[in-house]
Design a protein that fits this description.
Blueprint lengths: L12 H33 L2 H8 L3 H8 L2 H28 L5 H18 L1 H8 L7 H19 L8 H17 L6 H18 L4
Helix pairs in contact: 1-2, 1-4, 1-6, 4-5, 5-8, 5-9, 7-8, 8-9
Length: 207
Amino acid sequence: MTDTAASPGRPGPSTDRARLGRGEATRAALLAAAARVFAAAGYADASVDEIVDQAGTSVGTLYHHFGSKAELYVQLYLDYQSRQHHRSARAFRAAASAEADAMALFLAGTRAYLEGAWTDRHIGRIFASGGGPPGFDSLVRRRFRDWLAINAAGFEQDRPFTATMILVLTAIVTEAGREITALASRRAARAFIEEVLSLMSQLHPVG
């Protein structure tokens, strides 16, 4: 028997993969259910029982994966922010292959971020409305500072922006990302995005 073969009574690699797949599916179901419940009730009034009922699992399973309602809320936020930052970074890299102007690159990333905020508005609204567990506001602030540092590092070589300009541009994108979640239609969202980009470009004209 080789080292990779399963011995009697012990799970083999295929069993481990299946278990991992089930765990990821359960985790995703809990996050999706939590998004619906938090959106409908807010953090304080959200019921763990309602979350697990919608996810088709148990309270024990929720605590196994997330530890608490607070951790579930925080993870939902972190996953949302991660998707947003990846969207922005992908657009920035794609634009960089054909564009050298720093502001044009920043605007490309901003457009992707705001379009993503509209696409995931059902998630973004949860955090735009305030609330959350104790310490959540501090977490949001830390994430903003992290994103500020990432934006600054992206332009570190040529330094086309001052630290203050990076702060102002990043703050505009962050607040616009919150506001777009409340708009009523895709047309309104598109108009909003174009106006935000136009105003940003006036702070540091493209070209």
